[in-house]
Amino acid sequence: MYASVRRYTANPGVADKFAARRTDIEKVIKTTPGLIAYYMLKTTDGAVTVTVCDNQTGAEASNRIAADWIKQNMPTIVTKPPEIYAGDIVITTTTQTTGPRG
Question: What is the pLDDT of residue 98?
């Protein structure tokens, strides 16, 4: 497995703006080849997304898919490109969840 982490900074409230477009984002991110999971975290200065894929190709595709969607749908809200971190997943543990809590 391979993951891509995108960190959107200097944009408080952007996670709420993304969340308002949740259905659209879920629809487009599901087109990522080999998608296993996608998560978005709300931070004090923006948001962090984590995309987990079968391989590096899918994770890199998720970065292009996200950038294209933002450019087309939220260009005035997300004006600074995210910091991107990516790599092989070397440790994983999961438990059953029932969805977002909050």
Answer: 64
29 falls within a domain: yes
Residue 94 lies in a domain: no
What domain count does the chain have? 1
Contact criterion met (CB below 8 Å) for 37 and 12 = no
Predicted local distance difference test score (pLDDT) of residue 95: 83
Q: Is the residue at 99 inside a domain? A: no
Who's near 48: CB < 8 A, 6+ residues apart?
5, 6, 7, 8, 40, 41
Residues in the chain: 102
**pLDDT beyond 70 at 102:** no
- CA gap 57, 91 in Å, rounded: 20
8: number of CA atoms within 13 Å, CB side? 25
Sign of CA dihedral 85, 87, 91, 96: positive
Task: Give the pTM.
Answer: 0.89
